[in-house]
Design brief:
Elements lengths: L10 H13 L2 H14 L6 H6 L4 H29 L8 H12 L5 H21 L6 H15 L3 E2 L12 H7 L1 E2 L1 H15 L3 E4 L6 E5 L4 E5 L5 E3 L1 H10 L11 E2 L1 H18 L3 H14 L8
Parallel strand pairs: 1-2
Antiparallel strand pairs: 3-4, 3-7, 4-5, 5-6
Amino acid sequence: MAHGLYPNFSSDDITRLLYDWEVAPNEKKRFLLKMIASRIPWQMSVDQAAEEVKDPLLRVMARTVAPEIFRHRIRHSFFKLTLRGNTGHYKDLEESVVQLSSIGFPNQNYMEIKKELDRMALRVSELFDEHRDHLTEELKVQLLCQVLFQEEGFVGNLQNYNDPSNSYLFHVIKSRLGIPISLSVVYLLVAQRLGLPLYGTNLPLHFLLQYESEGYFTFIDPFHGGVLLDRFTCEKFLEANGYPISAKYFTKASSLSMMKRMCRNLIHIYRENSSKEMEEQISEQLSILESRSTHVE
């Protein structure tokens, strides 16, 4: 049963709401599905939640409405992120990128994602312990990049840059290939497990990371194997691509701004590929992320 893994999940609660949905008038059914979606932990798949319903008839019903619950659940997650605004932390990043990834890979298993992120964080932690007698902030960065690039092989997908799978966390972790922002997400989620002061940087055309501790600062480019960069090099990149040198390009990116950028990337790719249905799905999510309204229909 799932209750041990998801202590906040109640199959009885879902069962009751499904029964209410079955007998409710049409104008209330949508609201009840939104309620069900909000009761399913983000770490748990909708299909898994449906299988936890004890009543066999309601379980069949849950399977039938699962696609609609799935859509409501993503909208609910993104709406919560919008309400929080541009926070200075990444506590909500993992949930957001997992929900986005589920659009491209509906059958993904979050526990597989979590297991890999935990394992990589443990490996970095072990290296920190091995070098504890001379562990500087610079060495921490070098060891993080060593694990994620040299040992794990995360690198930019130069061969197929415009593959939409490069933007979905589940596939990035499986393939070890991605685009600058999705690879940066992997670094951030590992760094978050270790309490490292690593942040996203919304540089135009090429997302970067910045490590900022009390005595050490550097930019990191996960797309090119975790190479370390100084600000001068980043400014030259801006100039070479026709952008003015502006402080706004070097501010720390929030989870919200990163999710918007990932959605815009996907919309562009799906539009170029004439994948109208997927373009519309991602556009719907972006509209939620850009909303400041008090509710989501």
